[in-house]
Design brief:
Length: 451
């Protein structure tokens, strides 16, 4: 499956980013709102320099070298195995996912109670989404509670991987459970972006579910489902943008959504070029390992020491975050950034190799592969949401336990057994079955015998 390898996913992401940005900037009449959005974020087109382009090409090349080094060091691939009790995994995934959904629902219900009910919260979200978002963030149940719904792509991806196995792997009840998990998570992540602006979680779920299904079946399939997922994401994107930009009344929701999408691609590419256009401070891992610091609660200890460097780095970008290819440069400089990207390319290929052998590694790689498909938007690979999702997947695999399951055999044609050879029946029905070969006696000899 060459289209699912890490280099292929990176090329798809960055090729699409360059194509959309170039198309939007080359057609200012069709994308007239793009200039307005760029002015609002103070984006200068002079940042798109040759030096920035050279760094991006070099970064992709270093990632490719790390990928090739891992391929050279790896042993031959074994056959794909499930590697776990599929029915047990489906049960644990269902109940874990139900727990995450219950926490999210309780959070929303308690917040809505302060406003008088769900109807009032929904009305506020339609009128002023930012106020509704701040209200929800100020009413969190406990520290780190947002990770509960941030892990919905992980449980949904695991359910999709189990559904992609042969039908005999799951009984009917657990197959229904996996379908319910996938359906509920898609519905929840369609509603949350209206208020919380967590559209990446929906994209993460849709992309990772498709990747793990293809890896479980060992071939690409169902491109119509991928197209349907893209349309679903664009619909949620358009709805969110129409709610957060109510002052632009003379444009249709579709036009506004497409122009804002073009701006996001342009802004992401600008953030990748900008550090090469200015003096870049070394943030010493504050960007690349920010998610790890958040997850381990060490950010309050480390970030104060890096506060000045991080503030200086924030002035170099527009909206959003630095991309996967640029964050290591800002953190460690050219040499350190290249070493970081080489190691990243090596690890991505290693996880892909393991994902082609066992289901649980396929689920882990699907999360990483989905993040690679929007790596121009930020270094989501090391975000606390993704790291927590990987922890959830690993914990579920640990609880399920491994099984000594043989590799799924390739179906072969049945053996052709030749029928036994049966002797043909005798042509004559005479009772004579044996005839002697002795010669008849001569007449002279017969006379002597008679005498």
């Amino acid at each position: 499956m060459p289209l699912l390898t890490p280099p292929a996913l990176l090329l798809i992401c960055w090729g699409l980013t360059f194509a959309v940005t170039g198309l939007a900037l080359a057609n200012p009449q069709q994308f007239d709102l793009l200039a307005v959005f760029m002015l609002r974020e103070e984006l200068d087109q002079r940042a798109f320099s040759r030096l920035g382009l050279a760094w991006l090409m070099l970064a992709l090349l270093v990632l490719l070298v790390g990928d090739l080094a891992c391929r050279w060091a790896l042993l031959s691939r074994r056959e794909f195995t499930t590697g776990l009790n599929a029915n047990r995994a489906a049960e644990l995934t269902f109940w874990t996912n139900l727990c995450f959904l219950a926490i999210t629902a309780l959070w929303i219900l308690l917040t809505a109670r302060k406003l008088g009910g769900l109807a009032q919260l929904a009305a506020l979200a339609l009128v002023d989404t930012l106020t509704a978002r701040d209200l929800l963030l100020g009413n969190k149940l406990f520290t780190g509670m947002r990770l509960a719904y941030a892990a919905l792509p992980a449980t949904g991806c695991l359910a999709a991987g189990l559904l992609a196995l042969p039908r005999t792997a799951l009984n009917r009840r657990n197959r229904r459970r996996c379908r319910l998990v996938l359906g509920l998570n898609i519905a929840a992540l369609m509603l949350l972006p209206v208020v919380m602006s967590q559209r990446l979680l929906l994209l993460q779920l849709l992309l990772s579910s498709y990747i793990v299904a293809c890896m479980a079946r060992r071939h690409l399939f169902g491109l119509r489902w991928l197209a349907l997922g893209a349309l679903l994401f664009l619909a949620i994107w358009t709805l969110r943008e129409s709610l957060t930009n109510p002052l632009i009344l003379h444009r249709s929701a579709l036009d506004l959504g497409l122009q804002k999408l073009a701006f996001y691609f342009t802004n992401d590419l600008w953030n990748s070029f900008a550090p090469l256009h200015n003096d870049t401070p070394r943030t010493l891992g504050g960007l690349s390992f920010g998610g790890l610091m958040e997850l381990t609660f060490t950010d309050s200890l480390i970030r104060p020491a890096l506060a000045e460097r991080l503030e200086a780095a924030e002035t170099l970008r527009g909206g959003g975050e630095f991309s996967l290819l640029t964050a290591p440069l800002v953190d460690f400089g050219p040499l350190g950034g290249a070493a970081y990207l080489f190691l990243a390319g090596f690890i991505f290929r290693l996880i892909y190799h393991l994902g082609r052998q066992r289901l649980i590694w396929a689920v882990i790689y699907a999360q990483i592969g989905a993040a690679l498909l929007f790596s121009s938007h930020g270094a989501y690979i090391t975000h606390q949401n993704l790291l927590f999702s990987l922890i959830v997947i690993s914990a579920l695999a640990r609880m399920v336990g491994s099984t000594h399951q043989a590799a799924i055999p390739t179906p072969r044609a049945p053996l052709q057994v030749k029928p036994p050879v049966v002797a043909a029946p005798l042509a004559s029905s005479s009772p004579v079955q044996f005839q002697t070969r002795r010669k008849a006696p001569q007449p002279a000899q017969r006379e002597l015998e008679d005498a």
